[in-house]
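Hi F.,

I've been meaning to write this up properly since the lab meeting, where we talked about keeping a consistent format for the predictions we share between groups. The idea is simple: the sequence comes first, exactly as it goes in, then the structure tokens exactly as they come out, then a line or two of notes. No screenshots and no reformatting. I'm using this chain as the first example so we have something concrete to point to.
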Amino acid sequence: MKKLVVLTGAGISAESGLKTFRDSDGLWEGYNVYDVATPEAWERNPALVQTFYNERRKQVMVAQPNNAHQILADLEQHYDVEIITQNIDDLHERAGSRKVTHLHGIITRSQSDKKASLTYPIEGDEIRMGELCELGSQLRPHVVWFGESVPMIEVAAKICQRADVFLLVGTSLAVYPAAGLLGYVPHTTIKYVVDPNIPDVGRYKNVTTIAEKAGFGMQKLKEILISNA
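Output, unedited:
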């Protein structure tokens, strides 16, 4: 079975109704991202950051996987599919995808404020101030904030190196280090890009682009991928 490696970004979740800060000039649901998505913001006003992510978590739990998520899950019948996602939602998992690497964490888990590798499932949809990890520090969202390292990037790079087919869906390749992952994909690997605004991939070989939103673009690509499996 060929290995299909997929890198997904905000565009795939947008069709499920989840917004990102790039929708409106750096504002995310009315907040400046640097007020709610940085370590400095957490130090300055942890209650505000906690409330912000509690609201985002509620939105994620209400949202449903869309056609693009479902097609990627269905492709496991034809490929060894590994998904690397920049998104913090769990829509890939809920669609049925079994191998998902979250570069920027996942909002349905909490983590220790003292030791990021200590993560926990969240009961319900909120983390409350005063909820502590086993080390006695405040629990925070299991999300990589701006200015923090991306611990899963090396794992993702190794996955990309093994790709027989590579697919980019719903990402502008504007956020590093995720944007550099395409450079780890072998030159000979067939690559597909699905996004209404195709990012600059001119320096890469064997690239086919589909300038459509994730759902429609994946519907067009599905038959091609199945026929080439």
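Notes:
The longest helix spans residues 46-62.
Helices lie at 10-14, 33-36, 39-44, 46-62, 67-74, 91-95, 153-161, 214-227.

If this format works for you, I'll send the rest the same way.

G.
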